[in-house]
Amino acid sequence: xxxxxxxxxxxxxxxxxxxxxxxxxxxxxxxxxxxxxxxxxxxxxxxxxxxxxxxxxxxxxxxxxxxxxxxxxxxxxxxxxxxxxxxxxxxxxxxxxxxxxxxxxxxxxxxxxxxxxxxxxxxxxxxxxxxxxxxxxxxxxxxxxxxxxxxxxxxxxxxxxxxxxxxxxxxxxxxxxxxxxxxxxxxxxxxxxxxxxxxxxxxxxxxxxxxxxxxxxxxxxxxxxxxxxxxxxxxxxxxxxxxxxxxxxxxxxxxxxxxxxxxxxxxxxxxxxxxxxxxxxxxxxxxxxxxxxxxxxxxxxxxxxxxxxxxxxxxxxxxxxxxxxxxxxxxxxxxxxxxxxxxxxxxxxxxxxxxxxxxxxxxxxxxxxxxxxxxxxxxxxxxxxxxxxxxxxxxxxxxxxxxxxxxxxx
Length: 410
Hints:
Layout: H1 3-55, E1 61-64, E2 70-75, E3 126-130, H2 134-138, E4 162-174, E5 176-182, E6 195-203, E7 211-219, H3 221-224, E8 230-236, E9 254-255, E10 278-285, E11 292-296, E12 301-305, E13 317-327, E14 354-362, E15 368-370, E16 375-378, E17 385-391, E18 395-401
Antiparallel strand pairs: 1-2, 2-3, 4-13, 4-16, 5-10, 5-14, 6-7, 6-13, 7-8, 9-12, 10-11, 11-12, 14-15, 14-18, 17-18
């Protein structure tokens, strides 16, 4: 065989070897994409189907909402809260003593959720629970993280892409807080982002032992699958690490009301240069039993966070915050265009900027008192800002929010 033929044969063998190697690699990759990934999804679906009965309790009645939600009317003593080891065998407490100085004048009526606009409610002795679907849980990165905040908060800086514009007070002992919160439908750019407005009652340090109680409204496509503003609650006793969750998605918060569905869409909402709508929120510590109660609207008790869930909040809060928060994932390397509040800056004022008004705290003797030392802070004021004020009608108030990405917030 000539040297030319030998050389040619070697080249052909190398090409064949290379082709076979490429085919084998392609076959392996294709095989993995066909078998491994579906197995991963099948396992996740199995975990989801095992978890759903823990939060979707057997109902005695179901109500279909116009926005697609299904509301289950669940016997109150069967709600998820009583799966908690510290709460098993208990039943909901009777209503507590209201804070002194509490007025129900000019507060919103309680039929402010889409599901209840038909006039249909859950029977006495039951609570309405928004049904969680497989699709809800499939949007989460994992079953374990579903319904949980995956970050640590800091008052003085943004953390993990979380940006704030808040009013806050600290340096004393706080036994609750109250405000009227303007409701909007801010644009949220990505399913991995959210926009919310809420009250925080905080105790402990901004480390592993942070305790918080939270309530307000939020737009979260990842959690709810749409862009409606929804009433929500949250709690944690370890800085969002392993305890707590949104709404009734884990055991903890005990609901006592048969007309309010936590996690359900709010209606009506405010419009730019049009009608304005706000919701009244009151969180306070029952001086008799120590539980932290939540009132929403005109005298409507929603339920309570049992004091046994907490460490520092077993006594009192050491900070209260009011305001907005968004997640900024920096799509394409620039600031998100997810809006906070109305999506307009505080300087645009009433009918255009979002607001909190009638800010109060509950002091040691269960009395509501106006806030006298409110401080305001915006992490990135070119993206979202805040301006405080006081007047005779609104007491302590502030405007806040913004559009996110703009010429000064690239």
